[in-house]
C-alpha cells in the first residue's frame, strides 16, 4: 500500500487494525475523563479532591508500572492486552451503574480511579510494546508511535467537546457507559491481528526488572530523557487537574467551557503529533523535545496570567503542543534505541515517569491551588519548568550524539 511518508506505518495490515480499534477506544476514554472531572467538581466543589482523584488514577503507573514492564516481558502480550481491556470496560460500566443509581460518592470515585490506574499500569506498556510487532519493521516504528500518539491527541481534541455536549444533554453515567462500549472496538481489532509474538524474557520477574533498571540507569541518554519526563509532567501536565477550576471560577463558565479548554490543549497536542509523524531522524528529535519543553513553559505562564478566554485557549494550544512534543518525542527515541528484548521494560519506565509524576504533580497542584489559587500555582510551575529548559538546552548536543550511537547499536550497525 503506497502511502505518504507521514502515514507509512499504516501500510501494515496489523497496525491498521490496531489503529482503527484504538481510535474508537481513545475517544471513549477522553469522554469518561472529562465527565469524571466534572462529576467530582459538581458534587464537591473541591480543587483538592480533583487532585486526589487524578492522583489515584495515575499513581499506580509510578508504583506498579516498572514491575509491570518486567512481568509483561515474560508473558504473552496480546493475550493479556485483551484481558486488561476487558477489565477496563467492566470498570467503566460499574462506574456508570453507580452514577446512574445515585450511589456514587467521593469514596467510590477515588476507588474507581485507583482501579483504572492499576489496570492502566499494565495496559499502556502492553499496547506500546506490541506496536513494534504490528508494523514488523523497526524503521517504521517511530512513525507508528507518532501515529498512535496522534490518535491519543485527536481524541483529546474531539472527546472533551463531545463530553461537554453530552453532559449538557444527558449525564455523567451516560458518558461512562459510552466509554465501556468503546473498549470493545480495540478488543475486536486485537483478536483479528495476525502477528509474530515478541520474544519473552527469561528469569524471575525480579531478575528481569533489575536487568531493565540497570540498562536505564547506566545509559546516560535514557537517564536524562526520563528526568525530562519527570520534570515536565510534575509541572506542566498538572494543568489538567485545575482546568475545572479555571472553567468555573476564572472564566465563569460551565462543562462546555471546560470541554473547549481541554479541546484546545488537545488541538495543540494533535498538531504536535502531525509534526512528529513527518520526522525521519531519531537523533533530530532531541531538538524537538527541548523546544517543546520551552513552548510548554512559556504557554503555561501565559495561561496562568490571563482571565481572557480567547487568549487562554491559544495558550492551551501551546501547552498541549509542547507537552506532547516532549512526551511523544521521548517515547519515539526510547523505543527506537532500546534493545528488542528490553522493550516492555523501557516502555514501562517511560509510562511510569510520564503518568506517575503527572499524578504527583496533579495532587500537589490541587492542594497548593486550594491554598494559594489556581493561577498562582500554574505560574510557579511554569517558572520551575523554564529553569529546567536552560539545563536541557545545555545538554542537547550530547544527547543527540548518544542517541545516534544507541540507534545504530539497536539496528545492529
What does this entry look like structurally?
It is a single chain. The chain has 16 helices and no strands. The chain is an all-alpha fold and 413 residues long. The protein has one domain: Growth Hormone, Chain: A (Up-down Bundle). 83% of the residues lie in helices and 0% in strands.
Q: What is the CATH-assigned architecture?
A: Up-down Bundle
Mean pLDDT: 87
Number of helices: 16
The class by helix and strand makeup works out as: mainly alpha
Count up the domains. Answer: 1
CATH class: Mainly Alpha
Largest sheet composition = none
Estimate what percentage of residues fall within beta strands: under 5%
Pick out the low-confidence regions: none
Helix content: over 70%
Shape: globular
Terminal Cα separation, in Å?
28 Å
Tell me the Rg in angstroms. Answer: 20 Å
The fold-level CATH name is Growth Hormone, Chain: A
Summary of the model, kept short:
It contains 16 helices and no strands. With 413 residues, it is mainly alpha-helical.
Write the layout of secondary structure elements.
Layout: H1 13-44, H2 47-63, H3 65-72, H4 77-100, H5 106-135, H6 141-169, H7 172-192, H8 205-218, H9 220-235, H10 239-250, H11 255-277, H12 285-305, H13 309-337, H14 343-372, H15 374-394, H16 396-410
Helix pairs in contact: 1-2, 1-5, 1-6, 1-7, 2-5, 2-10, 2-14, 3-5, 3-8, 3-14, 4-5, 4-7, 5-14, 6-11, 6-13, 9-13, 9-14, 9-15, 10-11, 10-14, 11-13, 12-13, 12-15, 12-16, 13-14, 14-15
Amino acid at each position: 500500500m503506497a502511502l505518504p511518508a507521514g502515514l507509512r506505518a499504516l501500510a501494515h495490515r496489523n497496525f491498521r487494525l490496531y489503529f482503527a480499534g484504538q481510535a474508537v477506544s481513545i475517544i471513549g476514554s477522553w469522554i469518561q475523563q472529562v465527565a469524571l472531572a466534572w462529576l467530582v467538581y459538581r458534587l464537591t466543589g473541591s480543587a483538592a479532591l480533583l487532585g486526589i482523584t487524578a492522583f489515584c488514577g495515575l499513581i499506580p503507573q509510578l508504583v506498579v508500572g516498572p514491575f509491570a514492564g518486567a512481568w509483561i516481558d515474560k508473558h504473552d502480550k496480546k493475550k493479556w492486552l485483551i484481558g486488561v481491556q476487558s477489565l477496563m470496560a467492566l470498570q467503566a460500566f460499574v462506574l456508570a451503574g453507580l452514577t446512574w443509581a445515585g450511589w456514587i460518592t467521593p469514596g467510590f470515585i477515588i476507588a474507581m480511579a485507583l482501579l483504572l490506574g492499576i489496570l492502566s499500569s499494565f495496559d499502556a506498556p502492553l499496547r506500546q510494546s506490541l506496536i513494534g510487532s504490528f508494523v514488523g519493521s523497526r524503521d517504521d516504528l517511530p512513525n507508528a508511535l507518532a501515529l498512535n500518539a496522534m490518535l491519543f491527541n485527536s481524541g483529546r481534541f474531539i472527546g472533551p467537546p463531545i463530553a461537554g455536549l453530552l453532559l449538557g444533554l444527558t449525564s455523567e453515567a451516560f458518558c461512562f457507559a459510552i466509554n465501556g462500549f468503546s473498549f470493545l472496538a480495540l478488543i475486536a481489532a486485537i483478536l483479528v491481528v495476525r502477528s509474530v509474538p515478541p520474544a519473552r524474557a527469561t528469569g524471575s520477574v525480579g531478575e528481569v526488572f533489575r536487568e531493565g533498571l540497570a540498562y536505564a540507569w547506566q545509559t546516560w541518554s535514557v537517564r536524562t530523557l526520563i528526568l525530562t519526563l519527570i520534570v515536565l509532567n510534575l509541572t506542566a501536565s498538572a494543568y489538567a487537574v485545575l482546568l475545572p477550576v479555571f472553567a468555573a471560577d476564572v472564566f465563569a463558565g460551565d462543562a462546555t467551557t471546560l470541554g473547549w479548554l481541554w479541546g484546545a490543549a488537545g488541538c495543540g497536542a494533535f498538531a504536535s503529533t502531525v509534526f512528529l509523524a513527518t520526522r525521519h531522524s531519531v537523533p533530530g528529535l532531541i531538538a524537538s523535545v527541548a523546544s517543546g519543553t520551552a513552548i510548554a513553559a512559556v504557554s503555561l505562564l501565559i495561561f496562568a496570567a490571563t482571565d481572557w478566554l480567547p487568549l487562554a485557549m491559544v495558550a492551551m494550544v501551546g501547552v498541549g503542543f509542547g507537552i506532547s512534543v516532549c512526551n511523544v518525542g521521548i517515547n519515539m527515541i526510547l523505543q527506537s534505541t532500546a534493545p528488542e528484548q528490553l522493550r516492555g521494560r523501557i516502555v514501562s519506565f517511560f509510562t511510569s515517569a510520564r503518568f506517575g509524576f503527572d499524578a504527583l504533580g496533579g495532587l500537589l497542584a490541587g492542594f497548593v491551588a486550594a491554598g494559594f489559587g489556581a493561577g498562582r500555582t500554574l505560574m510557579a510551575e511554569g517558572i520551575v519548568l523554564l529553569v529546567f529548559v536552560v539545563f536541557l538546552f545545555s545538554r542537547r548536543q550530547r544527547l543527540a550524539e548518544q542517541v545516534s550511537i544507541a540507534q545504530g547499536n539497536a539496528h545492529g550497525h
